[in-house]
């Protein structure tokens, strides 16, 4: 059994990624008294560079305080190691005498673990523990981090909808989500009557068209006297290109080191403002980019999410004892359960919203989509219906 | 004594403006059994148009649910009545046999009440009850609505700061605030150690210069390895013009019916992105407009704010019995107290951040500024210090 653990956190932080880290540390201590537990700073980069914090003896009280704090306490990284980088990471792990490496992250992180496991050839256990606000990991019913982010988005849109009942107009909120629309869809979770917004929801799973968008907004204004729109930063046009690419001058498009287009900055918001100005001149319209607000917000940590994330960490230690794999948060029809699945089944794959979660015309959720959201994020506030 | 009350809500909604409305209704019922209490829909517009909801007999349970719900349940308006409009409003009030009109809003709302009181010549009582997330009413220590919005902003910046400890870079969050920087300053309220962001705070009370901003960011990156910036949408350049005016092409500038420049849309965010791209090329930078998120967010309603807002409504009924005036939330050195002040002392005036709340170089808060924030919004979460 493993007695030296290395733990790291990768990708975009969440509100509960530290729960998973602390869940793993405390479970490893319990199962393996005297275990040596190292936290690598900034993901695989810390392993490559030998930059660790020794978690073996950090007081439990301190760890629990960290567990309740959003974002990655060990730091994170966007590095996607190639073969040469993986060799360095493997050498780093061996140098520490690691028996298991638990890496908390999304599908890229699972991919890194798959490569490392192959290269290590069974000499140590590689475990991927899930986290992502995007909720886009296959094999998972939902992912730790999603519910907290979803509740932020649900509360924000409920609040903005109330605001626009008082002072009518058009509101567009741009929500993180490159390929999967789950977090944007969460805007609808807390609608409380037939009049409630968001009235329109656009996700990357459906082609976006500006003329259709303007028609949709116009029809909504006729019906509701206001129009609340939730849109994913990653919405794409019919030809599969990100909307931002067709709206923004090419010289202003930004890409990261992996060639990923920067999606959600001012450019997309401005493009929406412009489209509304042109398509519905004279209408009061406001566009906000929610940006980083939802992903690790300390005010909206869901206790359910926190508990599941902690459990995922503990389960990762159990999987390490079984040779490794990916922790999957599945649904048994009644409740969420942790299961071990092969790294290869999660690595590099993206889970999209199921087709039947969306209405055919692609601008709203179906009953099935709403049922899924309401199961994960049931209404939290009792709303007094306004008089207008 | 007044037995027919008209109540209305004006200006931008807040998280607790319904507390004030319900506080007034319930107190009027208690002091004046059998009172006729009318809620005007969409502020003075509802009085002008005869559009009311009868609040005399709405069940207390329903009212308390509304009190706990953000935004203006009676609807709001941006109308600033001129003399002719005021005549119509006064006629409308007389038609209802109103003994008192309680109008909940900011300094424009107080201004409307002052004009109406003058025109009515003592025939009925006009009361202004304060609300604004901007915290910019003179005579007030702070205003109902501010603390809830401030806590949203404090939590958002605490969270983003933790995010950027994990994945370093530059973050700029643009916060509502046309003339007063209180809400932007609130970003600093929950800093928990010497390293905490926001590291730079720019408010309308100090002239903003792009080159100095770039220098400030560069110096912060050297010191903290990341840079978190809170900036008011209303920051202005040395010549007193809004920053957005000097950064955005004139044909894209938008103004509302009152000639107020639209400040916080994508344009300003984009301008900051551009400034950072030019001034610090190659640095990871992210700009979010918090926009509507803070102002009536259901997830961050402060119980203190809610209680004070309710009390302000009740006190408005008391003032109505004394001939009218403006409810002021003052500080007696130990606690917040309600006092009545003349409408004229609040109407149309803007309270700015006191000079000594800001450091001389204008990019951060002084100890006095921090003490004020910490008195109103003491730390709410115990943060576990990250390992990076």
UniProtKB/TrEMBL annotation, chains A, B:
Segments forming a coiled coil: none
Binding site for diphosphate: 12
Pfam families: PFK
Residue(s) at site: Important for catalytic activity: 131
Catalytic reaction list: beta-D-fructose 6-phosphate + diphosphate = beta-D-fructose 1,6-bisphosphate + phosphate + H(+)
GO cellular component: a single term: cytoplasm
SUPFAM superfamilies referenced in this protein's UniProt entry, alphabetically: Phosphofructokinase
Protein known as: Pyrophosphate--fructose 6-phosphate 1-phosphotransferase
